[in-house]
Queue: 2 jobs
Job 1
Amino acid sequence: MDKDAPDHVFLTPELIERFSRQILVKDIGVSGLKKLRSSRVVVIGCGATGTAQAELLARLGIGYIRVVDKDYVDISNLPRTHLYTYIDAKQSIPKAIACANRLSEIDPTIHVEPVITRVTPDNIEDLVRDVDLIIDGTDNLATRFLINDVSIKYGIPWIFVGFSSWYGQVFFINPGKGPCLDCIIPRRILEREERGDACEVLGAVNTAIALVSSIAATLALKHLLGILNDYNTLYVVNGKRLEIHHVRIERNMDCPTCIHRRFEFLAKKGSRRGATRICGSNAVEITPPVKTSLNLEELSKRYEPGKILSVNKYTMRIMVDDIVSIILFNDGRAIIDGVNDEEYAWKLYRRYVLDKMGLGG
Amino acid sequence: MEILDFRGEPCPTPLVKTVRKIARMKENDEIKILTDEKECVEYIKEIIPSLGVELLSIDEEEGFWIIHIKKITI
């Protein structure tokens, strides 16, 4: 028996029956199943690649999966996103909740924890400190550099996953054993993204996403089983020509992050409040000045008939006009959909949310 | 008494087949399982409490084990 197999995962008939095919695989076996069952993973971002990886990891039998996302399910997500349904989109269900619900339906014996939040320097340490592996399901470099900082600081491996159109890249970052993100991606690309030059929507093909996510989940599986030993290979995927190129990457021996341990992205603490344009979509996110807890179903009664397009425990969608709507979360955060102007978004938030709460002043 | 001879079958096959067999047994049915996989002997011992069976004996022979169990609850 594998000496490394955790002994606190107890075999049950259902577990053996569920994984009866998987445990026949020589590299997995019952001891591998026990390792997976005792593993803890966080998926940051429940979009196209995040949900695809989360589904594979849940079906593999990972015992604990935390899923983190700030957004809600939109109908435009459905062609490329695993797990979500038309009903989730019509009800504007938060992605973290919809993702967690589906994973629990797949396997009710695993622990799935949804967290509805934007990942920031203020909260990322609490989100990742107790896991064995961080999965990248994000769509922007700023969050990836933040994940990279926290990964190197705490010695927690993470998997970088990027894609656009038919193409993707996957890289497993194991702190101290291979290059980190700051070794391989020039910061000028991040600076370009932050200036908004890279905010255009690039498009995506769901078959290429599945291919890229499958490579990432394979690396996660091998790592959690203890059989991954290559931390220098960048997998470059051409989903149109169906090619996977292995590109060898070396560490930057002067890397500010993994050599000099300067965690500049993690240091940018200080809650961001106010209105912010959301990269890649015609929307503005409003973070209220103070945190709150709203009973949305009660609040919905204060609006004129027909103004509330959907309401549930987590979100309420308020119609402004034919183009603009407000998705209000139960913590007071809102996404003003159909608006690019931050000042106008604030005005709408004040009129349609704060005034209804009696806080409009 | 039925004898399930899994000798020559690598682990976890004897474990999976044992779990499936026990699920179909009636109260007081007894079986003997023969396996030459030590790892599977340990796993079968581990899973027995959750299967409603009593472990009557485990005997080590030359190169294999005989696990004798009895179904006590359905």
Job 2
Amino acid sequence: MLLLCQLARPRSRTSWLGPAAILMAAAVVAILGARLAVGTFGAFMAGFAVAAALMLAYQLARPRSLREWIGPLAELVAGIATPVATMALSLRLDAFSAFMLASLALYASFVLAMWGMRRWFLGWLAGLGGLYLLLVVLLFAATAFEMRWHRFMGIVLQEHIRDAAILSFKSSIMTVVLAMIVGIPLGYLLSRRRFWGHTFIDTVLDIPIVLPPLVVGVALLIFFNTVPGRWINDAVIAIQHGINILIARVQKPFTNRPWQFAADGLVFAPEGVVIAQFVVAAAFGIRTLKATFDQIDPRIESVARTLGASRRQAFFRVTLPMAGHGILAAAVMTWARAIGEFGPILIFSGTTPKYTEVLPTAIYLEFQVGQLQSALAVSLMMVLLAMLTLWAFKKLGGRFAM
Amino acid sequence: MIELQNVHARFGDFELRDINLRIADGQYCVLLGPPGSGKTSIIELICGLRPLGGGRILIDGRPVQDLDPADRGVGYVPQDYALFTRKQVFDNIAFGLKVRHVPPGQLKSLVVGAADLLGIGHLLTRTCVGLSGGERQRVALARAMVLSPRVLLLDEPVSALDESTRERVCLELRALHDRLGTTTIHVSHNFEETRAVADIVGVMRDGCLEQAGSVEDIFRRPRNEFVARFVRAGNILHGWALPADGGARLSLAGQVFAIPGGADGAVSAVLRPQDLRVVSADGPGPGKVCLDGVVIGVNDGGGLQVTLRVAVGDSETVSAAVPRLDDEPISYRAGQPIRVAFDPARLHLLEPDAAGNPGEGNRVTPGPPAT
């Protein structure tokens, strides 16, 4: 195997490809072999141990200067640390601790090994930065290890969780629609025109982004307690009554008890969730939309106008279709922000189960009553959603404008 | 015909001042100038995309400065072409016809006609994403030309193309113009490109039109030192003139001689390399001015002439273009003493430059000759 390592490696440069492939293969074999003996995670540990040992051998097989001994020494540390982690498992440490110990040991060995290499400095920097990535991975790994997956579906399908999910989806989609209605014009104007007060508006847009979310909730509550705020609240109630009357009219031939809105305005009501989400999420949406319009050459509109289009036609027939992907990306971004919103909703809408409870507040409520598994299940659901969102956002070519 | 009368505009710190330009029907005008000199701004003013500060813009004698861009009858091809990238080539070309509600049958024949004219008939169903630079330019041209504009405005139409296709595209632009006869304004910062296409040239600097005239005028008789340098009209020599009967006496590059025109004080003059001849030591013909110098560089143009860099006088360096037979070996070497001569009548005196000496900057004008 060492011979293979040497053959796969060009003499002058450190090529990791050949050795890495062999290491992988060896690790897989070791995992499969140990699977029967010590269980899944023990098998992983064994795989890591074999990988580290091979790496050590590979390093030793190379002709080297004194400085390059640091790398193999690190491998030695790894070679010791990994079996330690494996033993930790056998000492009835839980699976996650063993996983963490092993990945830390492996990671440290990689970073130290970088020190011994020619490109050591960049590798070393990457190692320091990678600590953050490791943290992120460990966080999700911890949550996933802690979850008892056989209970997952049962928890998620509970009635109040289901209601929270439905309200979360309804309100966040409503928020996206509202945010796009104000965001597309504002993003366009900020991108295209340099008007008096441009910088001021730009700064105002940053306020919801930098403000602590709880403060947004408090401010909302205060605002809807002022006279104009109450007018708005009353207007919403009036609209809800109006819609109810219409619904009753339409449904009368079919049923005696038509489905009705709860005419309860915005404060401490499900409709308020939309407002609470909208305030912060819209700012993110507008930022992304501005970046989208920034990327579209303004001369395209100029040409359209010389070809006979009015400003309005140029906007709707040329710029908007070209911004399509960016607008979708902005919508995804806004939606992700809205569905994760917690602070303002907690204060402005409250946490009444089956009424104003949304997914993030559901996590909070479950923790409050000690239902750790329920909180975990909802959290993992949201992690999954976030991943999907991020994937969609990147796929649509969105860029963070921050 | 398009006419700019005292056009004035201000955008932030940049100002266009008193632009007067008249382009007759069917002429091809190139606006030439360094980047940031206001060429593109003029185009955008004509399109109506920027607010006009003052003055008038007339297209076919009709003032258009208060009209919408749509109603001015201009075809605009911006830099980088600004194609509608999400649409097919056909829809790009048809856009102007569609917003003007041209009936579908007529629309199709017009689009196909314009595409065939530019040789892109086979691209009509493609999207704009995979097109080459030259193809994109043709699509943009077809999109503008399909509306039969009165004036075609091209903003740096070839600078996005690679070096090897530029020359060919310039010839094609000129050929298209010769065929259709649309009055054209073409913005460029490249004087070779200008020579290839232009009937008339306007040279711009810092928001001013320094000189407008035929290609011949601009290259042979540049108005001032800036224009002369920018179009590389030839050697620029600095000297001192004293009025004399029937003309002036000029002290230049260490020689004193009479010139026909009137001049006084510090002057600069253009002398084309072709007008400098290498002469043998026994002297030139009568009336010629001789400059003795040393060859400091030989540039084999690869063709029928050799360009010599010759240091003459105290600090001047001149280029001389020497004719050469096809296979004749070059007999000039750096360091070789040489005598070149020119006819003073060939010297073109430049007007003093309003904004000081541009280009090389801190050149010291020689003082009056000791008498």
